[in-house]
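User: Hi! I'm a student and our assignment asks us to look at how structure tokens line up with a sequence. Could you show me two examples?

Assistant: Happy to help. In each example below, the sequence comes first and the structure tokens follow. Example one:
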Amino acid sequence: SWNDQFRNAFKGWHPDGNGGFIFGKWHPDYDFKKIQRMFMGSPRTHGGQYIDIAHSVNYLESHDDYTLGDFIKIEMGLFNYNSRIEDIDKHSKLTNEEVSIHKLSALALFTSQGAIMVSQGQEWGRSKVIVPSQYPDVNVGKLDHNSYEKDNETNWLNWDHRDANSELVDFYKSLIIIRKQNELLRYASPDNFKFLATKTNSISIGFVISNGSESIAVFLNSDQNEIAEFEMNLEEWSPLIYTQSNIQLIDSKVKLPPISGIILKK
């Protein structure tokens, strides 16, 4: 089943100021312990819903409600429920800060145990703007949170918008390859996880998944202002992917600037 708790933990339920981890805060009733559970596949043994992690469909966007891209725009304060967009092409080009949050979101999704659902256009931060049609609509130009009845450009995919956000598309492509090539990111038990404590007050999380001679480490810092710092012996570790090039791996420390993340492999 769709893991709504996963969605709420990372994104939030509605863009009403109570967003989740990717916005550098905790959705109401969520904390570090629950976030850890999400990465492990929400197993019942750790307070989750699922007998088997294969039952958890992790997602951040579906056909319902706002797209992830529009949710981020509203939660960041770039737009509100009543904002009207006149230039859809300009609107669909993501800002650098939006790209950072999208990358962090994707990194969290692709490093979580269980099945993954990526909605159409999520990989370029797709926006759904209500366009004029033959039917009167007082909401033309607003962001659409319930577009099931529209067979027009509001719902259609605009590949030009994909090309305008190719950096994010390429990031998703890389994550898909990394997940396919590394079984630990798909089939690991809770016993394979070791969570690491941050040395700062940032809203961040780090963990290592190990089985036999292979290990994967994941670090995410969603804090909007604080650097996240973790201590780890970095010998024989190398990066697989990172959201920003200024993440530091020095002196047995992993230092992540605000809104950034990295996957390492040993």
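Example two works the same way, sequence first and then tokens:
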Amino acid sequence: MTCKSLWAGMILALPPLFWAGNFVVGRAASAEVPPMLLALSRQVVALACLLPFGWTVMRRDLPRYWQHWLLLVRVSLAGMVVFNALVYVGLHATTASNAQLLNSTIPVLIVLFGAIFLRQRLAPGQIFGLALSCLGVLTIILRGDPLRIITLEFSIGDLIVLAAMVSFSLFSLWLRDFPADLNRLGLLGAQFVIAVAVLTPLACIEYLTGARPSGSVGSIGAMLYVGIAAGFLANLLYMVGIARVGPARAGLFIHLVPLYGAVMSNALLGEDLHVHHLIGMAAIIGGL
């Protein structure tokens, strides 16, 4: 392994740790912070962390953002708005452990969408791998009971989280369409700005319908964590990693999320992994 590969691996090992914490915090704070407010606070705090370092670059690259405005909006909506909003909504109806395991579908979805939208050809073995991974996802969603598919007894929380993973997979694919020389720190800041603009009215609507934060120390801590660790640091490191090794290889590191998360969920939330979790995870990894 070259020094460059080792450095890229170290960079990409950290975002899954921060994202695993994001699921745990999102689940723990589900009763204290409404989902749209949590998603908005993530972007606001992350943007505040980034601006002291990225404002000069963002202002310099503004003409280039306009040049790629459609791609920038698409990426921001998929990775910063839809993904976060759906995860926090889904965590109201499913466990952090389930959400973390479903997070491992992202590398599989990246390959699948690459074949569909980018016309990347798949060998028979790859098709089998995708099918096996999809079977693993079904095992988790159906809680290990195949009869649930007949009676349509799905967990709405799991389905919402799975939709979030679809959105993040598209985000990962679209990121590589930006020019390699476009500064990633400024690009991330531009995404945060768009996300704040979109999420602010949604959080206001949520507030007007009666969903209010508790204002406790725990709720404030949750909003700070998702912004600093899961929002700013994780996304910055992930974007740098994609620029170095590409979306497919970077996506492999996402499998560390349930490994980190299993320990955190058990220690902090008292959640246990069941047999269907392990079978589903083995099928997803085996398929990949």
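Here is something you could point out in your write-up. The radius of gyration is 19 Å.
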